[in-house]
């Protein structure tokens, strides 16, 4: 029987050495498939009528306000929905802002030309009468400020904080490359999370503030020294503000840069760290991020690094690049497709990511799906080698039954190396053990190996779906569930026939 081609067949077995994957250089701003996707997802910039935006926001209703400062803010941000169903964020400036409508539209159109997967892209504006409004993509998962300082269920994990630092550095580098080097008041409110849980930099900060007041609305303790001296924002001011965001990420609270620098100089780095992150990071990684913050917060603008340096410094600190942001953050993400109509109990358990139920079902099923298959488990010649193999299987099965998943991985790995014809069940069981040990990438590879052994075995597809869900690859997971269900139907029909 020919081997069914898996949608994830480029993933190798954990026993094989993986060649480095070819990835686009995001540091240079070259579009990756993800960036390309977002590039096409954001519509072209256009001018909206006031009536369109009034309709989209239910007449600028107070219950549509999403800016955390609420109605007291001079500029209010509303959630809206266009007639085509697209969700948008609408920023409404105060009456005194932007007296010159042409200047406003020209500035907005300039920012609107920028398109990048790390930016909340600006998709339109409106300048009618005294009204000045900007329209951007809607980000449904709150601001960095909310996740760092006002979290409800769990603090933002270390790996996600490093990802925020990296993605925002990428956004700033892209703006630099597009000759948009000034970003006003970079802070934790300017970083928002999209539907995938990925952090993006608000494009509103790229707009000149005109007569809207200060370029820095935050506490003076967080303002770049040169702005206090001259009242001007320069590109190096943005790096200083990036340093204050790094302090927020490291500490989980607002720490004035001067106080943070005193702690850093006194080698009291651990006093700076958010206590909720204990055990999540290597001390040398934290130290590197603290040192980067210190470089960004230098009082002399010329002593601060550039955006390329930020990317180079933060990139190596990412240790879980393959895990989706919404998984790291514990956010629920809507399924990309409707679940297949017919799923077996195992399929349903995998769909809801119930590892305990999956374990119970695999335990009850045993090796019966492989009955009749030619494998090393049915040897009749009792050689010492076969006896050792059977003992290894026995110990692995006992560890699996007793939920000693680390030992089960060891025994099953040894067993897989001894068998000339591999067992799909062994790979399936080891896949679940890897999932229980939070190693979904290894689980996916084992589930695929099980599929190679038995190309139409629903269990192999269901376990791949479970591993893909754990990795945040929801669309692929749904495809695998559908394939598993299809083979389930085929199998039942053959039994009936």
TrEMBL record:
Q: Which EC class heads this enzyme's classification? A: transferase
Q: Which residues form the signal peptide?
A: none
Pfam families reported for this sequence: PK_Tyr_Ser-Thr, TPR_BSK1_C
GO CC terms of this entry: plasma membrane
Give start-end positions of Polar residues composition bias: 1-13
Keywords from the named record: ATP-binding, Cell membrane, Kinase, Lipoprotein, Membrane, Myristate, Nucleotide-binding, Serine/threonine-protein kinase, Transferase
Q: Where is this region: Disordered?
A: 1-41
Chief place of localization: membrane
Instruction: Report domain Protein kinase positions.
Output: 63-329
The protein here is known as non-specific serine/threonine protein kinase
Q: Which organism is it from?
A: Stephania cephalantha
